[in-house]
């Protein structure tokens, strides 16, 4: 099982946090030897790594500081932003008019959900529409694995890890 995943690598420009989540996916694949259901959990973590990569790619495109603007025209500057920090700011200040659905980040609507992030990446030319379709499928599968009605079990295959690694690497290749 280690041989199945040893050559699946992320490029050095992929952020460390994404690298850590993807490493967990690979480790879980190997642990599938001991607990078969870890193969399924490995796939879930691979999709979580891709979602993390999509969010990191958005933030990387914004630079080190962002200006948030609410529907009243009020602004707030955030240094070292993250997708989560922006959403958390809105949540903590929602009674003051900071609604993430109406928020602008650097004068553009805030892509507060994965599919909106994918649209943003396409509009900025960072991914193609074809890549968006692949990422969209991965987000769908991540959602299906996150919001279960019953426990499922996946067959052992490193193919999901290979495909996700390719997608993550493509986000940070340039």
Can you give the mean pLDDT?
Answer: 92
Radius of gyration: 18 Å
Which strand order does the major sheet show? 2-1-3-4
Strand runs, count = 4
Number of helices: 7
Structural class: alpha+beta
The amount of helix comes to: 55-70%
What gap, in angstroms, lies between the N and C termini? 31 Å
Bin the strand percentage: 5-15%
What is the element string, with H for helices and E for strands?
A: HHHEEHEEHHH
Largest pleated sheet: 4 strands, antiparallel
What's the shape? Answer: elongated
Low-confidence stretches: none
Short summary:
With 174 residues, the protein is α+β, with helices and mostly antiparallel strands. 56% of the residues lie in helices and 8% in strands. It is elongated, with a radius of gyration of 18 Å.
Q: What features would you highlight for this structure?
A:
about 10% strand; elongated; four-stranded antiparallel β-sheet
Structural topology:
Elements: H1 2-6, H2 16-31, H3 38-62, E1 65-69, E2 75-79, H4 83-92, E3 104-105, E4 108-109, H5 114-123, H6 129-146, H7 159-172
Antiparallel strand pairs: 1-2, 1-3, 3-4
Helix pairs in contact: 2-3, 3-5, 3-6, 3-7, 5-6
């Amino acid at each position: 099982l280690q041989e199945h995943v040893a050559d699946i690598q992320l490029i050095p420009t992929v952020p460390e946090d994404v690298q850590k989540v993807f490493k967990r996916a690979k480790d879980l694949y190997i642990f599938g030897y001991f607990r078969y259901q870890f193969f399924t959990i490995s796939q879930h973590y691979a999709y979580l790594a891709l979602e993390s990569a999509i969010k990191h790619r958005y933030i990387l495109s914004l630079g080190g500081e962002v200006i948030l603007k609410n529907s009243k025209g009020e602004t707030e500057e955030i240094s070292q932003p993250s997708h989560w920090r922006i959403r958390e700011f809105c949540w903590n200040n929602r009674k003051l008019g900071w609604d993430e659905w109406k928020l602008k980040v650097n004068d553009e609507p805030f892509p507060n959900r994965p599919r909106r992030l994918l649209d943003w990446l396409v509009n900025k030319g960072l991914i193609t529409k074809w890549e968006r379709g692949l990422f969209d499928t991965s987000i769908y599968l991540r959602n299906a694995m996150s919001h279960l009605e019953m426990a499922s079990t996946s067959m052992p295959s490193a193919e999901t890890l290979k495909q996700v690694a390719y997608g993550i690497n493509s986000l940070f290749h340039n």
